[in-house]
Design brief:
The protein is of the alpha/beta class. Helix content is about 35%, strand content about 25%. The protein has 10 helices and 10 strands. It has an 8-stranded mixed beta sheet with strand order 1-2-4-3-5-6-9-10, with helices on both faces. It has a two-stranded antiparallel sheet with strand order 7-8. The protein starts with a strand and ends with a helix.
């Protein structure tokens, strides 16, 4: 794996990309919330194609929006648009969790830019329009007092935090991921991801609107779920029905983070679908 940067999207942020060599056309993988492109190393190494996994804006080693900015969801989609335009050809697109929502919105907005699509543990979050007023108030509160990082005493403390969230990650993998996305700070280390990600978004997720984008996707789509995952949405059947060409695969002995729980099984499913 090597890394490079792309000046991309709104405010021309620098987007860091992890790149594994292989046959063209490339597979673009979009990671989930508070993860990083390098978290897909064990899957990418098992795929025969070139794999590009960006650190999405404000994550990993990519740029932060800075003072007065905010992480509006369509900015993630715009970054993917800039990357695909830079690559100059349609791509196979894989997304996980938050990255799946980004991937689906992009594939619906730019159907000719996506050859095949894989959505891992993610057909969008639950509809929360009922909480719109509360979310707007919390958004304003978070702007008054922006979230900040609590320092980590050491890399080992970071590893413990990562493995608390997902015990299946081997210690050596967790160590590499923590080392890549922490930096020195008074009191120890802090994560490199922007703590502003913890601020509440003022715009609630709207399932009916999302289903309209799903209906615009023309790429054959594989939806992959972990059997042990608790990630579900009430209108999942409607979202699946909105996809013109989709099938579902379930990975046994895997939860929400399938790329950590079962990287070999996940890579096999991705390769078979993209072939």
């Amino acid at each position: 794996m090597y890394e490079w940067t792309l000046s991309s999207g709104p405010r021309r942020l620098l987007i860091r990309l992890c790149d594994w060599p292989g046959a063209e056309p490339p597979i673009v993988i979009l990671h989930g919330f508070l993860e990083q492109g390098a978290a897909w190393d064990r899957v990418a190494r098992r795929l025969p194609r070139r794999v590009i996994a960006p650190d999405q804006r404000g994550h990993g080693r990519s740029g932060h929006v800075g003072g007065g900015g905010f992480y509006h969801f369509w900015d993630y989609v715009a970054d993917v648009d800039a990357l695909v335009q830079h690559l100059g050809a349609p791509v196979d697109l894989v997304g996980h969790s938050m990255g799946s929502t980004v991937a689906a919105l992009f594939a619906g907005a730019r159907p000719d830019a996506v050859r095949r699509l894989v959505l891992v543990e993610g057909l969008g979050p639950p509809d929360v329009t009922h909480a719109a007023i509360d979310r707007a108030r919390r958004f304003l509160d978070d702007l008054r007092a922006p979230p900040s990082h609590s320092p980590l005493a050491s890399v080992e403390a970071g590893i413990e935090r990562v493995q608390l969230y997902n015990p299946s990650i081997p210690t050596e993998i967790a160590r590499a991921l923590v080392a890549r996305t922490t930096r020195p700070s008074p009191g120890g280390l802090v994560w490199t991801w922007d703590p502003l990600h913890r601020a509440r978004s003022p715009v609630p997720f709207q399932a009916p609107l999302f289903r309209r984008f799903l209906a615009e996707i023309t790429a054959p789509t594989l939806v992959i779920k972990g059997r042990r995952s608790g990630f579900v949405v009430a209108d999942e059947a409607q979202r699946l029905a909105a996809l013109a060409d989709a099938r579902v695969a379930v990975v046994d002995d895997a939860g929400h983070l399938i790329h950590h729980d079962a990287p070999e099984a996940l890579a096999t499913l991705i390769e078979e679908h993209l072939s």
